[in-house]
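pasting for the record
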Amino acid sequence: MSEGSMDRKTQGSWDDLKEDSIGGEESIRVAVRVRPFNAREAARGCKCCVEMSGQKTTLLGLSDRNGDGRKEFTFDHCYWSHDRSSPDFASQEQVFSDLGRFALNNAFSGYNVCLFAYGQTGSGKSFSMVGNPDDKGIVPRVASELFEFIDSKRDDHIAFEVVTSMIEIYKEQIRDLLNDKKQGGRGGEELKVREHPKSGPYVAGLTALTATSYSEIERQLEMGNRNKSIASTHMNDVSSRAHTIFSIKFCQTQLQHLGGESGLARETKKVSHINLVDLAGSERQTSKQLSASEQQRFKEGIAINKSLSALANCIFALYKQSQSGNKEKVHVPYRDSQLTWLLKESLGGNAKTIMLAAISPADLNFE
């Protein structure tokens, strides 16, 4: 059954949001999703080396056929999307309901939010984030329900502003996906990261577009996706070779009348930044002699793996920081890559972070 319809009504009222999904101490959610076999894996007769039950994911190595040596991991959410006929099948709607709405609910309350998909190339990251016209992913569903929320608040005397931008980070160079003339390395200037003393890192000269409806964001996503850098690799014929960040700046301005005969009012403003990140896929590197095109993929892979390592280092440092409280000063190496430097305000502090790890079910990818 297709879950791609974007005109369905939001379940429940936005005023009935669960308190435990907003603010509070829950700053991060980690989920894992396993996809079906692709054509290459099916042709090779691969076996599934992943099992899921509740919040537990189990990996079965080549020596685990007798039930020994099983590796178990626990996550906030485990999504079994390997077999559509299974009663436990996790649809795009279910993934969005858990992760996308957690991001939106906190953005509505004024928090910065970062949701990113991580995994090796061909593991299903882009399908989870973008989807297809018949089965939309997290990014278009977030945009759709953002405007559903705005429509539901039209009578509350709140002014809304939605501003979007879209970039890719290709070999540590930043490209503006919503303006072809600013494509670094494609005949235009390379965009630079600057730091504002109050709002933090930003991309100088980046195209920012105001959106007043979901259809406008849909057109922006189509433009940005057309400009993305993709290439064929050993593991994926249409592998994204760059990190893609679709950013939404969401402003809510409300006038609160102070009462009395003075007629005075106070303006309150909440500004949230929602960063939706489709990370480039990691891939094993080889030392064999490479052709010219393979050398290009090799260099891209080195840059991708380096920035993913920098992201992992930042997350680990933030974890140590949270565990130590104020007892120990922990350095978070945001400046080690363009990716982590740009996401600084959406990873640390009171920001909310959602990580979706996409994995392959095939035993040939087991390490």
